[in-house]
Amino acid sequence: MTAGIDVSGLSSTVRAQDDLYRYANGPWLEQHEIPADKAIYGAFHALWDTAEQTVRTIVEKTAAAEHPEGSEARKIGDLYTSFMDEETIERLGAGPIADELALVAGVQDQAGFVAALGQLELQGVGGVFHYWVDADAKKSDEYVVYVTQGGLSLPDESYYREDTFAEIRAAFVEHVARMLELAGIADPAGAAERILALETRLAANHWDRVKDRDVTQTYNKLDRAALGELTPGLDWSVWLSNAGVPESAFEQLVVREPDFLTAAAAALQEVELDHWKEWLSWRVVHNAAPLLSSAFVTENFDFFGRKLTGAPELRERWKRGLGAVESALGEAVGQLYVAEYFPPVAKARMVELVGNLVEAYRQRIEALDWMSPETRQRALDKLGLFTPKIGYPDKWKDYSKLEVRADDLVGNVRRSVAVETERDLDKLGQPVDRDEWKMTPQTVNAYYNPRMNEIVFPAGILQPPFFDLDADDSVNYGAIGAVIGHEIGHGFDDQGSKYDGDGNLSEWWTDADRAAFEERANKLVEQYNVLEPAEAPGHQVNGALTLGENIGDLGGLSIAHTAYEISLGGAEPPVIDGLTGWQRFFLSWAGAWSTKTREAEVIRRLALDPHSPPEFRCNAVVRNIDAFHRAFEVSESDKMWLAEESRVRIW
């Protein structure tokens, strides 16, 4: 068993009592540079790099070997080969999208335009709105279609209206003009201005990200007749038939932002058809740009990479090729990954960790002093229905319908979209598949799915620094334990808590308990609203946007601490390298967030990312936890001190 904390990596100039984040990560922050092809880099990203190298080995070995025609291994190899075949891609230029651009150019009227929107949707070119199939949030044992707002090229509706982003908008117009010129579109400069104007109109009716994360407001179930009343003038039958969507799929659907659809339908009537055609041509070019010749790839990266995120260099071609393979054949790659890199002992250890975390939640819920017995019992019932998924799915996706050709990159990607669309639509009318995973096993991440009431931990994240079979328990509980707790915590955050144990939106709280919860949540919003990342002074965290993740962090770390206590069975943890078990626990948490971010990327994430910047995921959370103050003997004179009456305690 190893200590798991490298004391040589701790700062000699910063105290944990003043800044836990920089005490744990100061030397790393000083010594490391962000790789040129990244806008952000840290512990998570280093693990992503490791997983990426592993997947590269798998995919390149697969591509180099002979496999039967139609086999998944052959498809993996051929798709990767098609991405790496630069000679063919350069020779084709904009050729792979010629038919799509001709389709748009040939549109004569609004009906033709709606038909084109549908046809291109089936090929992965996003239109004015998006749709997908998922479990119904009020009937979680049935599937339903969800429809949501779309039509924007910039990261968020705020980019179209805030003065902060005026420079971005000007650069966007220049970028669109250059891309349209590469594609041979007439009057590229004028078209680019008109495209910005059209998207600005759409953006004016987009729900902002705070409103859009409200699961109650975004659940608006309609039948087909009500959808028609909501969008006068929009012929849904034309769109459905061309998008390959059966009429029956839209008999009942959930519209997330109804007034956006109304505004979009009006825009389709009122904006000149030629302006819409320019916009749709741009959508075709933008969607395919990463798959086309170097002129398109470079220009696309110059704006969406260098300008928006600050990353100075394009990712190497093999990395982008892996992304294409994993997008189309992720679970096929995942089967090869887990067979070689995920031992059964790791899964067994995770089952034990999850069990302790769930027990810790049970104990803490039972001890809550602000919740009534009635709501407390319902919370415990929900906890008892949690389903953990660890490592990889029990049932793998079938890719037999996907045709892959080694000389047709764009076609491969388009056909993949069509196959996944068919897979999605085939769910309608079928029992909800509770074995389905929404991440591949090689993904370095985790998630909570409220409609399934499940927590999912792919094999990719179950590695150091988050999970180490040889490390002291304090380190594993401070890292992967807190991640597990975080994901469980999403079931009890400001939005997840609106779902019951069966995954249905349900009022299982008393009014008084909900008010007590919101009072505590609002204090957390206030705490985060005043925080400014060191990389972007003058720019503040949006406490309302990040509330769910902040509750997840606070609850997750608190619960992980209790679970660590449970694992000790009453024994006192050993002191290793001068650090107590409790100190190693919090240092492990802090080390998981070691991150450097470019200023442009910080600003972009503040506008749209529901997660707080990494330094606050560390410091802002631990200041609210009594055990942290005890572990490091934090006093009123220390910068990390937070008065007891100001500490937020939810779960």
Describe this structure in words.
It holds the Pfam family Peptidase_M13. InterPro entries: MetalloPept_cat_dom_sf (IPR024079), Peptidase_M13 (IPR000718), Peptidase_M13_C (IPR018497), Peptidase_M13_dom_2 (IPR042089), Peptidase_M13_N (IPR008753). This is Putative endopeptidase. Keywords: Hydrolase, Metal-binding, Metalloprotease, Protease, Zinc. Its cofactor is Zn(2+). The chain is an alpha/beta fold and 651 residues long. It folds into two domains: 7-35 and 343-392 and 463-646, 3-Layer(aba) Sandwich (Collagenase (Catalytic Domain)); 98-291, Neutral endopeptidase, domain 2. It is built from 25 helices and nine strands. The chain has helices spanning 20-31, 43-64, 72-84, 86-92, 98-105, 110-121, 166-182, 188-203, 209-212, 224-230, 236-243, 258-270, 273-288, 294-309, 317-341, 344-366, 373-384, 409-425, 473-490, 511-529, 547-568, 581-592, 599-608, 614-622, 626-631; strands spanning 40-42, 129-136, 139-149, 221-223, 252-255, 387-391, 447-449, 454-458, 595-597. A four-stranded mixed sheet has the order 2-3-5-4. Strands 6-8-7 form a three-stranded mixed sheet, with helices on one face. Strand 7 (447-449) and strand 8 (454-458) form a beta hairpin. Helix 16 (344-366) packs across helix 19 and helix 19 packs across helix 21 (547-568). It is globular, with a radius of gyration of 25 Å. The two termini are 31 Å apart. The mean pLDDT is 96.
